[in-house]
C-alpha cells in the first residue's frame, strides 16, 4: 500500500513513522524547503506521550525534553499561587505516560529523522496545491501529480486537501484570541538579576497566570537553557492577517495590571511573532474516496489544554494501524485491486468514527478552559480560585475531584488500544 502524506508537521511525521513500522510505503510532501529550527515550546500530555512510547519514540523525546514536575496556576494581579498541581510520577502512574515539555523544533527533528531512518520518502519544498479525489492523487505547484492508494491531508489549519474533500473553500474561522510566542535564551533572563525570576527559572514545571480575557504560560525547554513564554489575549490583528511582529510596548500596556514578575519576563522578550488563533466548525466529513485528513487540518483547537499536537499524533498512529490492517487483509486475499479501494474507504470511515468523538470533546474542552481561565474579577473567579486550591491532575492529588475527572477523559485515553479493540471487534461502533 502506498500512502501519500501532505505535510511533515507533528501529525504527518507520526503517521509516516507508524506506517513504516507496519511496512507500508510512505511519501511525505512538505512545502517548506527544510525542517527549520523554528517554533517555541510544546507540551506533550500523557495521552500523546503514550502513543510516542508505543512507536518507540518516547526515549528520544525525553532525551531532548523534560518531564513536567508540577503545574502552578497563579493569579494574574498578585502572582499568588492558586493551585500547585503535582505532575511528575503521579501523572505517569495514573495515566500511563509522562507529561513532557520540549522545544517544538527538537520534537519535529526527532520525528523527521526517525521517519527517514525507517525508510519514509520525505520530499521537502513540495507544495501541494490540489487533490484529485477520484484518482487518489495530489497535484504539486509545478503540475506534477503524485499518486497513492491513500492520500492523508496533514497540511494543518489552512489545509488545501480539506477543500478538495469538501469540494468548497473551507477557511478557518477566527476564535477572537491571539498568541504571542517567545523563546528566551537563559542569559537574557539571568541578566534581569531578579530573585523572583530566578525562582521561576529553577522550576522544572509549567507556570500559568490566569486573568480577565488573558493568560500566560511559561516553562523551560532544552534543559533550562531556553524558556518558552506564550501570552494569550484578545485578537487585535486585522481580519485577514494571520501573523505579525509582536510589540513589547504594546504588550506591557495590555498587561499593565498583571504581576510584576510576569511583566519583567515580558520586558525581556526577544523579537517574537503574534499569531491569530483560528479553528473550524465541526466538519461534515473528514474523508472522501481514499483521501482523508488528520490533526489541525480537521480539528484545530485553541491551545488551552495543550492537546492540538497530541491529537494529531494520535490520529496519525490510528490511521497507520487501520491501514496496516487493510494491507494485511489484501496480502491474504491476493486480489489487491478489488479489496484495497473498498477496504481503504471502510478503514477511513472507521478512523473518522474512532477519532471524531474524542477530538470534538477535546476542542470543546479547550473552549471551556478559555471561559474558566479568562474570568473577570468577581464571585465566579473567586470560586474558581477556591476550587483550584484543592484541585489536582490525578485522583490521588485532587481533593475536589472535578479537575481529575475532566482531565482523565483526555489524558487516560489510549487511542491505539481503542483502535486495536475496533479492529478485533469491528461491530463495536459508537
Ligand atoms: C500558541 C500555541 C501553542 C500550542 N501549544 C501546544 C501544546 O503545548 N501541545 C500541543 O499538543 N499542541 C499545542 N499547540 C497546537 C499544535 O501546534 C497543533 O495542533 C499541531 O502542530 C498540529 O499538527 P499538524 O501536524 O496537524 O499540523 P502542523 O503542525 O500545522 O503541520 C502542517 C504541515 O503541513 C505543511 N503544509 C501546509 N500546507 C502545505 C501544502 N499545501 N503542501 C505541503 N505541505 C504543506 C506545513 O508546512 C507543516 O509542516 C499549540 C498551538 C499554538 C498556536
TrEMBL record:
Which InterPro entries did the record assign? FAD-bd, FAD-dep_Monooxygenase_BioMet, FAD/NAD-bd_sf
Q: Which GO terms describe its molecular function?
A: FAD binding; monooxygenase activity
Record flagged with keyword Oxidoreductase: yes
Q: Which family does it belong to?
A: Belongs to the paxM FAD-dependent monooxygenase family.
The protein in question is named FAD-binding domain-containing protein
Key words, A-Z: FAD, Flavoprotein, Monooxygenase, Oxidoreductase
Specify the domain of life of the species encoding this protein. Answer: Eukaryota
Q: Gene3D superfamilies, from UniProt? A: FAD/NAD(P)-binding domain
Every FAD-binding domain range: 2-333
One Pfam family it belongs to: FAD_binding_3
Amino acid at each position: 500500500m502506498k500512502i501519500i502524506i501532505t505535510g511533515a508537521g507533528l501529525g504527518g511525521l507520526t503517521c509516516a513513522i507508524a506506517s513504516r513500522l507496519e511496512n507500508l510505503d510512505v511519501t511525505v510532501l512538505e512545502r517548506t524547503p527544510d525542517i527549520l529550527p523554528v517554533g517555541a515550546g510544546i507540551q506533550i500530555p500523557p495521552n500523546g506521550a503514550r502513543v510516542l512510547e508505543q512507536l518507540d519514540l518516547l526515549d528520544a523525546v525525553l532525551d531532548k525534553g523534560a518531564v513536567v514536575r508540577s503545574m502552578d496556576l497563579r493569579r494574574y494581579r498578585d502572582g499568588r499561587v492558586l493551585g500547585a498541581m503535582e505532575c511528575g510520577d503521579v501523572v505517569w502512574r495514573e495515566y500511563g505516560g509522562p507529561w513532557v515539555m520540549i522545544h517544538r523544533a527538537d520534537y519535529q527533528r526527532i520525528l523527521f529523522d526517525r521517519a527517514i531512518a525507517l525508510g519514509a520518502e520525505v520530499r521537502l519544498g513540495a507544495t501541494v496545491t490540489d487533490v484529485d479525489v477520484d484518482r487518489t492523487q495530489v497535484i504539486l505547484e509545478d503540475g506534477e501529480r503524485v499518486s497513492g492508494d491513500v492520500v492523508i491531508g496533514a497540511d494543518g489549519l489552512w489545509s488545501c486537501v480539506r477543500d478538495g474533500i469538501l469540494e468548497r473553500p473551507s477557511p478557518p474561522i477566527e476564535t477572537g484570541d491571539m498568541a504571542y510566542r517567545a523563546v528566551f535564551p537563559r542569559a537574557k533572563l539571568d541578566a534581569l538579576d531578579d530573585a523572583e525570576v530566578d525562582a521561576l527559572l529553577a522550576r522544572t514545571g509549567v507556570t500559568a497566570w490566569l486573568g480577565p480575557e488573558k493568560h500566560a504560560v511559561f516553562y523551560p525547554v532544552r534543559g533550562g537553557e531556553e524558556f518558552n513564554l506564550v501570552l494569550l489575549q484578545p485578537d487585535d490583528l486585522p481580519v485577514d492577517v494571520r501573523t505579525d511582529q509582536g510589540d513589547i510596548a504594546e504588550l506591557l500596556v495590555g498587561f499593565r495590571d498583571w504581576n510584576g514578575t510576569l511583566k519583567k519576563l515580558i520586558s525581556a522578550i526577544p523579537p517574537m511573532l503574534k499569531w491569530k488563533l483560528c479553528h473550524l466548525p465541526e466538519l461534515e466529513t473528514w474523508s472522501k474516496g481514499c483521501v482523508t485528513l488528520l490533526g489541525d487540518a480537521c480539528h484545530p483547537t485553541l491551545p488551552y489544554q495543550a492537546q492540538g499536537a497530541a491529537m494529531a499524533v494520535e490520529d496519525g498512529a490510528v490511521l497507520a494501524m487501520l491501514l496496516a490492517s487493510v494491507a494485511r487483509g489484501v496480502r491474504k486475499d491476493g486480489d489487491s485491486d478489488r479489496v484495497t479501494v473498498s477496504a481503504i474507504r471502510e478503514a477511513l470511515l472507521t478512523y473518522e468514527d474512532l477519532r471524531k468523538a474524542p477530538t470534538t470533546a477535546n476542542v470543546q474542552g479547550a473552549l471551556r478552559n478559555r471561559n474558566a481561565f479568562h474570568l473577570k474579577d468577581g464571585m465566579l473567579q473567586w470560586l474558581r480560585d477556591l476550587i483550584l486550591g484543592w484541585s489536582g491532575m490525578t485522583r490521588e492529588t485532587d481533593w475536589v475531584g472535578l479537575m481529575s475527572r475532566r482531565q482523565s477523559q483526555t489524558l487516560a485515553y489510549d487511542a491505539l488500544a481503542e483502535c486495536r479493540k475496533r479492529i478485533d471487534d469491528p461491530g463495536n461502533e459508537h
